[in-house]
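#struct-help
A.M.: can someone run this one for me? Single chain, 135 residues.
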Amino acid sequence: MTDLVLTPEEREKGSVFAPKFDAAGLLTAVVIDDADGGVLVVAHMNAEALEATLATGKVHFWSRSRGALWMKGETSGHYLTVRSVLTDCDQDALLIRATPAGPTCHTGALSCFYREVVAGEGEDEGRVLLRRKHT
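D.P.: on it. Structure tokens below:
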């Protein structure tokens, strides 16, 4: 998938899917649980990852740290099966509704967002802490 040259109006209101990748060739993908709308993971996709996701129905990402394409669940078996893909108004981010086949986070948590940022109290006053929310 390559960036098509579209006017802002065509990009925002037209019917052509023309993802707008950043200078590194990536766009942000937010994956939510199709059943309850909870955020599972936020990662990046390049054109190859997006094409693989659309072709297979399994969520693929581009790993910036490894510099490689990867399919979520390829080692754990905890795949994310695509239910729908939505794009934002200027087509530089995706919202993917998916059904997880197990924990999404590599830590074993159901979601990568399992800790809440909170203000410390008592002897921790003045510090910012993390409190576990989901397992």
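A.M.: thanks! The chain has two helices and eight strands.
D.P.: also worth noting: The mean pLDDT is 93.
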